[in-house]
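Sequence in, structure out.
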Amino acid sequence: MSKVALPSQPETTILAETFRLLGDSTRLRILFFCLEAPRSVGDIAASLDLSQSLVSHHLRLLRGARLVRGNRLAKQIFYELADKHVSDMLVDMAHHVCEEADEA
């Protein structure tokens, strides 16, 4: 197992805020929905049965935390996970939760 450098105090604060953002089930649903392909606000809202304004609000927070990025195509913005670190973390944590459930 490789050693990981301990984050500085400011980095720890940012990390804690990121985990706080991930503590919202609606934001997690949005992230998992965007895991496979870029999605528009309308597509996210319709598929997850949420209002477009709520989805936009959550995407603004997720974008601010650098967890998603938006790419404009004509008049629409398509959101995807920011990078492989974010997608790997989500998939790893989902596997972890499933393992815990299987062991119980």
